[in-house]
Amino acid sequence: MSSPMCLKPRLFAPIPWWVEAIKGERVHIGGMGRWDKRDKGTHRYEIADVRGRLALTVPVSRRHDAGEAGMRQTVLSAHGDWWHVHRVTLESAYGRTPFFEHYFPNLAMFFERDTVDRFPGLCGYIEATTATVMKLLGQPAEVVMTDHSPALIDEMQDLPSYYQVRQGQLGFIGGLSILDLLFNLGPEALLYLRSLAGLHPDGSPC
Questions:
Q1: Among residues 114, 109, 58, which one has the least CA distance to residue 86?
Q2: Within-domain flag for 204
Q3: How far apart are CA 181 and CA 19, in angstroms?
């Protein structure tokens, strides 16, 4: 497999990000040295609930002893019991999807009361969630966090539609988190990503 590009840090990243991530045996995530607070995609991901597109944000703050506001100095905040809000929202949005009950138990540790203590840093939280999603997709890979500048990709590009549980009522909603693809397609999620990446179903180059 070829080496993938260095990607921007993203929490439960949108599908175009994952199209690049599955191209190699390692997922390279850059930009750890500096962080633009205006880039909310670092700690925000979008899902589809009963009303349509919805953004979920993990609150963060800067470490008290941090000299610079880089990714490695950014920690998760306990503000608003966000882990409970995210969990309940995901259950409401995807509880009736074909694969939610199969996959969510493996993600539950990221939405529990002790999450902030278990994953104090945003960098570590993104690293752990990315590695877990890779395993759930069926393509485990090493996640490498680096200070190198990440490449720019169009995260809102138009992609072929896939099955969504409320597509009949809401129409297809693109540009969502990998969680939407995973809960709706299950094992076929990796096949969808590989087709967009120009790979055969077995992961070999076309």
A1: 58
A2: no
A3: 12
Task: Enter the tokens of residue 165.
Answer: 């549980």
182 within a domain of the structure (yes/no): yes
Task: Return the amino acid letter for 157.
Answer: Q
pLDDT for 2-37, tens place per residue?
556 899 999 999 999 999 999 988 999 998 877 666
Domain housing 65: 15-191
- Asked if the structure places residue 121 within a domain, the reply is yes
**Residue 86 pLDDT exceeds 80:** yes
Yes or no: say if 23 and 61 are a contact pair by the CB < 8 Å rule.
no
CB 71 within 8 A of CB 54: no
Between 190 and 147, name the one with better pLDDT. Answer: 190
Domain count, the chain: 1
